[in-house]
Write a structure and sequence with these properties.
With about 260 residues, the chain is an alpha/beta fold. The chain has one domain (about 10-260): Vaccinia Virus protein VP39 (Rossmann fold, 3-Layer(aba) Sandwich). It has helices at about 15-25, 35-45, 60-70, 80-95, 135-145, 165-175, 185-195, 210-230, 235-250, and strands spanning about 50-55, 75-80, 100-105, 120-125, 145-155, 180-185, 200-205, 255-260. Strands 1, 2, 3, 4, 5, 6, 7 and 8 form an eight-stranded mixed beta sheet that branches. Strand 2 (about 75-80), helix 4 (about 80-95) and strand 3 form a beta-alpha-beta unit. Helix 8 packs antiparallel against helix 9. The radius of gyration is 18 Å and the shape is globular.
Length: about 260
């Protein structure tokens, strides 16, 4: 996803939630459910060393690196943000994964690939950002081969939120993208409108993890950087407490879904 950089420290308290997590706190894994959600998704994909994967809205490439290192597969990541792609390519060179992983600037609604190019396509937390969800889903389906799978992870309401609750989501979390979130059934209806009829839905409970989850996702060095950012800056620390308290108090609303299709 396109994380817009804002270096103005006064924005820490009220910038959009994904900007805060990526650009102020320093997280690289910011989709709902984190690594545990990714593992639920990958379990459905039948990945091996010969699998060619497209990572749509790859961000800084954390999932692409994770899959390449775990399975020895090849991954192409695309993101609309030139800055994020530059960071991903820089990290790729440092990790010496250039033979397995590459990153390109690209639009999820108009993928720069021919039909039937990939064995699998994954996308984590993008549908809440795009204007044309149907086209985005169909584009992912278009570029995978017959028998291939495409999967999405999206924040999913456990029950339909009312206006009062959504106002709190916007005012407390500053999660303005969540105006486009759906219930599990709502997302299923989106896929039906995209003419997808073989959808598998896996429901996830907690959208955030604990310290040990962060350690697994971010690694020791970045976890220490995240902790240092929080300790040294009271605005970051206060916002983290405020967000955590609100999400914990409203676990009856916040969930995530893993949505997987097989191309036939």
């Amino acid at each position: 996803m396109d994380n817009k950089i804002n270096s103005n420290e006064s924005s820490i308290a009220d910038c959009e939630i994904f900007d805060f997590m990526a650009n102020h706190l320093g997280l690289t894994v910011i989709h709902p459910g984190g690594l545990k959600a990714t593992q639920k998704l990958e379990d459905t994909m039948q990945i091996n060393s010969g699998t060619k994967i497209l990572d749509i809205a790859c961000g800084k490439g954390s999932t692409a690196f994770y899959l390449a290192e775990k399975y020895g597969c090849s991954v192409v990541g695309i993101d609309i943000s030139e800055k994020l792609i530059q960071e991903a390519n820089d990290t790729c060179r440092k990790k010496k994964l250039n033979n397995q992983v590459k990153f390109l600037v690209g639009n999820a609604m108009d993928l720069p690939f021919d039909d039937n190019q990939f064995d699998a396509a994954i996308s984590q937390g993008i549908l809440v950002f795009v204007d044309d969800k149907i086209k985005t889903i169909n584009e992912a389906s278009r570029v995978i081969k017959d028998g291939g799978k495409a999967g999405w992870i999206e924040l999913s309401w456990k029950k339909e939120p009312d206006k009062e609750f959504l106002d709190k989501v916007f005012n407390i979390l500053h999660a303005f993208c969540l105006k486009n979130a759906r219930t599990y059934e709502g997302w299923q209806n989106v896929f039906k409108r995209a003419n997808i009829h073989n959808l598998v839905t896996i429901k996830g409970e907690k959208i955030t993890g604990n310290f040990y989850d962060t350690l697994k996702e971010e690694g020791i060095l970045n976890t220490l950087k995240i902790m240092f950012n929080s300790i040294k800056n009271s605005e970051i620390r206060n916002r983290m407490k405020k967000m955590g308290k609100f999400i914990e108090e409203n676990q009856n609303y916040f969930g995530y879904g893993v949505y997987v299709i097989e191309k036939t």
